[in-house]
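Structure first, sequence second, as always.
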């Protein structure tokens, strides 16, 4: 994976609990281009790597902008960004990757964001605005004070394309979503990002009128129900490098292989970022990630070894 050194050019608040970091190349050169919906890996020291969506527009070649929410139950990333990183610091990041691509062919875009899920959606909105494309953005937040980028999205440049929805209880959220998604304009596509219960609601409501191929989602947290499902041990066979290895119930495939000195690239270790994607040549995966599509799951030829397991006694990997 290509790594880059960047300097923290500026830090500012985007809401009462979100901090924005502007990153520029440490050597002053232009940064690699990116497309809306991209994210970067940010190396935060001591092996801590977190993925953050780029929220500026792809026309910016001199900086990447990320926004990080302060989490009370931080696994380390949020605390590092809010408490340790300061202007002028140098960080190592990965080159942008995109698992949430905006199709150029849609006639209209409906962008739906919940909370900090606004970050990739904002990059999309900036890009669509610059292109003069037809779009609307619906932003669900707990309050104005907690709606990151509220002032920017309310500015005349967005020309009233952004609707804010505050402090709605779950049933009121579903009612609002039914109103927004009840009709689908011809060739419209829906893009959504937010906390998992919110995403589940949007997908559920949208599925009544929108075909699956027009619904595009990005998860940034693990599917806790899938992760909590019963686990057993199984054997992983490595087709290219050889060797059979037992994966005990308390370890992931990636963790078990690492114990034997076989390293699989991992990043989020939650099944959301796609870094550890590995080919399957035999056996049946027990998918527990939030990255693969339903069609990819059914094909049984890929697995995310940071979280997924096996339904068969033996899983043969393309490693
Ligand atoms: S490391 Fe992110 S999906 Fe496996």
């Amino acid at each position: 994976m290509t790594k880059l050194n960047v300097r923290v050019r500026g830090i500012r608040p985007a809401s009462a609990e979100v901090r924005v970091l502007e990153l520029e190349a440490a050597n002053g050169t232009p940064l690699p281009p990116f497309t809306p919906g991209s994210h970067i890996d940010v190396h935060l020291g001591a092996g801590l790597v977190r993925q953050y969506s780029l929220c500026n527009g792809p026309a910016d070649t001199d900086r990447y902008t990320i926004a990080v929410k302060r989490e009370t139950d931080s696994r380390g990333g949020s605390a590092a960004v809010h408490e340790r990183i300061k202007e002028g610091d140098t960080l190592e990041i990965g080159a942008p990757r995109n698992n949430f691509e905006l199709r150029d062919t849609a006639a209209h875009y409906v962008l739906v964001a919940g909370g900090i899920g606004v970050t990739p959606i904002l990059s999309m909105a900036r890009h669509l605005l610059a292109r003069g494309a037809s779009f609307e953005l619906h932003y669900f937040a707990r309050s104005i004070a907690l709606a990151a980028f509220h002032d920017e999205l309310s500015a005349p440049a967005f020309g009233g394309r952004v609707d804010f929805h505050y402090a709605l209880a779950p049933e009121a959220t579903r009612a609002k979503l039914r109103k927004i998604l009840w009709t689908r304009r011809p060739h419209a596509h829906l893009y959504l990002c937010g906390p998992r219960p919110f995403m589940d609601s949007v997908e559920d409501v949208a599925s009544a009128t929108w075909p699956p191929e027009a619904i595009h989602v990005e998860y940034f947290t693990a599917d806790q129900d899938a992760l909590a499902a019963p686990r057993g041990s199984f054997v992983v066979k490595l087709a290219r490098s050889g060797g059979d290895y037992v994966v005990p119930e308390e370890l992931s495939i990636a963790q078990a292989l690492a114990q034997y000195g076989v390293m699989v690239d991992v990043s989020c270790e939650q099944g959301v970022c796609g870094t550890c994607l590995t080919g399957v040549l035999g056996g049946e995966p027990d998918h527990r990630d939030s990255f693969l599509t339903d069609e990819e799951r059914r094909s049984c030829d890929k697995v995310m070894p940071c979280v997924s397991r096996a339904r068969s006694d033996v899983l043969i990997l393309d490693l």
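Margin note: The mean pLDDT is 94.
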